[in-house]
Each structure stands twice: as structure tokens, then as C-alpha cells.
């Protein structure tokens, strides 16, 4: 009996995974629980174990290939067994292009087996002389449907002829241009961000907070611990602590939207967006609301440091309930963050900047910060979201209220 190796589903938002590498080749003996391959998502690269003892009979999706979750990516058979082989529908794009370029020229598009399309879509594409590689699939997991092919055909007919510069062909790369392939981590992040916007009614509200008192608190704590050479305290540490306090008072903002309804969580699993060289990852601190400021600070630093080194576990990048994205180090005042599904809200944090502001009837130089909150209007209305953001700003303007 053959055992199927399936593309795992890690998290509610995962739709596809990319095969980073296989640790065995076809014909190798494998043991149940043995690390069989590595799968890369937009968040993490993780190991998939062999589901049974036997021989790796077929690698359905090779290294570099992308496959939908729960699809067959390999077969394990008993020694001497020869089960029916599975068609590989998710071969790497590079392999598809290579085979296409190697194919003899002729009239009309050739059979494009590396592209996932309905049989009727392939037939219509051939009739209309449409290359499937130019069609965007809207079917389940991005599969191309007949409607997609006909839409691409109509679009091509309606499009005006492209202007061509002397010495270049339409669609070609001009001299000096650099083309960055839309693949790997960048492609996965792009797909997830688009899915986030398409799957939630996102609205962003802003508030400018006078965080002079927060800045003074930080200075006082740094001065108190100046003898500890390793002691660090950032504005983000204080904001993270305040966010946890505010979420406890506004629980709908600490929720996730799932198929069976809105889940209000008893504790805060606080996500911190961390910028990497090749993308973005959001590790989270479980039960962040149970820690003191000093404890939370160390927890956040730990997961952020391991995120940059690639040392996170799967449990640390899943199960978040609220996310903070801080761009203050980039010198940016404010922005509209995109939700991290299935979470209800994400907080955007801008820089602290000294500017003239009204304070107790006078114009003074104060430390000001812009906070932005993006929330899912499907889960909650503007009133509760704005009340949470205002409560958070009040805590940062008067840090002593964080203790109440």
C-alpha cells in the first residue's frame, strides 16, 4: 500500500507551500518520522516528516515547486511495490519555461503541463491561441478556469498595440533593466497580502499622541539602570506593554475571525512584525498580557532576534491575536498597515518627533507620535476600534494609567 506525502497546512491563511529541498531521492528507504523534506512558506521553513516506513517511490513536486496545501507532493511505497504514479501539477516555473523554450516552434501555444488549469480551460486556450502562462487563475488554489481564459482573450483583443521604442521589442527588457523574479518568499508575501485585503473589510484610523511622558519614563528607566551595560528599553517595549493592557479592556480587538464565528481570546498572543532581508515575518509572544514590562521586553527581543537568525519554531509564528508593526526606525510618521489574518486588528507605530503642540494653554515643544489602527470592519465597527486606539493613546500620554 502506497502512502501519500501531503503538503501540510500550517495556519489558517496558508494556501500553498514551496518545496525548499528533499532530503531523499527516489528509491531511498525512509522511516516514519524521518525528516523527509523542507517546505518554505512566507513565514517559515519547516521540516515535513515521512508518514510511514518504505521507499520514496515518487517525488511528485520537486525542489523549487509550489503546491496547494493538502495536495500530494510525494509517494512512499513498500519495497518492491509499484503503485500508479501521480501527475506532477506544480512543477517549478523555471522548469516549465525551460521545457517550453526547448519545444519546437509551431503554430499556437504548446501543451503547458506545468500550469494548473481545468481541462476545458486548456482546450479553449488552444482554440483561442492563448498561452496559459499569461492567464491569471481565479479557481480554487489559483487553478485556471475556462472563464479566465476567455477573459484573457477579450482583454488581449481590447488592449491597444503597445508602443515600441526603436531597437526594442514589445514586452522585452530594455538595456540596463534588472528583472527580479516574482517568486519564493516575495511571491508568497504578495499573495498573502492580497488575500488579506480581499478577505477583510479593512479600515484604518489614526491618532496623534503626545508621548512626552512616555519619553520621560523611558529616560528615567534608562538612567535607573545605567550601571547595567546590557540594559535596553525602547519605545516599542513600552507600547507593547500598553497594547496588552488596552486589549484587556477592549477584548473585541483581541479576536480572530474564523469559519465558526468571532473568537474572543482570554490572553494576548502579541505579534511583532520583524523585517528580514528577503521579506517580513511576524513572530508572537504567547500570553504577553501576563508579563511585566521588563519580562515582555525580553520576550519580544528574544523572538525578534531568533526571527532574524531563522531560529523560530512553527508555534511562534502561528496563533497570534494582535500585531504591532513599528516603522519608527525608518523615520516614517504614519502608514496604513495590512491585517495579519485571521486577526481583527494591527497597530502601526510611527516615529517620535519633537514638534510644536498645544499643552496646557500654551504652545510648547512636545514629543509627538502617530498611531494607526487597521481593523476588520466585518468583526467590529468604528466605535469600538476608535475607543481602543484612544485608550492606548491615553496610556502612552499618561503612563501611570497603565497600572490601573
CATH superfamily of the domain at 200-403: Chloramphenicol acetyltransferase-like domain
- SS-based structural class? alpha+beta
Our count of helices gives: 8
CATH C-level label of the domain at 200-403? Alpha Beta
Enter the CATH topology name of the domain at 200-403.
Answer: Chloramphenicol Acetyltransferase
Number of strands: 18
Output the strand order for the largest sheet. 9-18-17-16-12-15
Radius of gyration equals: 26 Å
In CATH, the architecture of the domain at 200-403 is: 2-Layer Sandwich
Beta-strand content bin: 25-35%
Largest sheet: 6 strands, mixed
The string of secondary-structure elements, in order, is EEEEEEEEHHHHEHHEEEEEEHEEEH
- The percentage helix is 25-40%
Average pLDDT across residues? 85
List segments where confidence is low: pLDDT < 50 over at least 5 consecutive residues: 89-111
Measured distance between first and last alpha carbons: 63 Å
> Judging from the principal axes of the Cα atoms, what is the shape?
globular
